[in-house]
């Protein structure tokens, strides 16, 4: 882990917690029961249920540990409560245009909830770092794997307060 805060939206934190709860209270106990049943069948060296079950149990325990660390380090930030809605900060939905006037709409979210295909980019990604603090009309350069690109901020939106 780094010393950077693990910023996350309330919905992202809820998703991590839901996954943790499902693994811990449903999947893991069912798997332990299956392993105990398989162990009672005798020879464990060629018992597929036992071998696969132990392997899957290690995977679940590893995932539970990772989720617990991420939730402990999480700093939940509600995008609706951002003070300055005229600039790009955590939780902003930003429409950007490149040099060829191609528009993209992105939402800056926590790294654990990033999904580029759905337009959600991690707060610490190169593009998000370049967009931080920008206002409508600002130009920002970012070094991407495909090379350097310049983007203009066309629109900034935040979720409405409930």
Overview of the structural elements:
The chain has 162 residues and is of the alpha/beta class. The protein has 2 domains: 7-75, Helix Hairpins (Orthogonal Bundle), CATH 1.10.287.180; 79-157, Transcription elongation factor, GreA/GreB, C-terminal domain (Chitinase A, domain 3, Roll). 38% of the residues lie in helices and 23% in strands. The chain is built from 3 helices and 7 strands. The chain has a 5-stranded mixed β-sheet. Helix 1 runs antiparallel to helix 2. The longest helix has 30 residues, at 10-39. The radius of gyration is 22 Å and the shape is elongated. The two termini are 33 Å apart. 21% of the residues are buried. The mean pLDDT is 90.
Explain the layout of strands and helices:
Blueprint (H helix, E strand, L loop, with lengths): L5 E3 L1 H30 L8 H26 E3 L16 E5 L5 E7 L10 E3 L3 H6 L7 E6 L2 E11 L5
Parallel strand pairs: 1-2, 4-5
Antiparallel strand pairs: 3-4, 3-7, 6-7
Organism: Sphingomonas suaedae
GO biological process, one term: DNA-templated transcription elongation
Keywords: DNA-binding, Elongation factor, Protein biosynthesis, Transcription, Transcription regulation
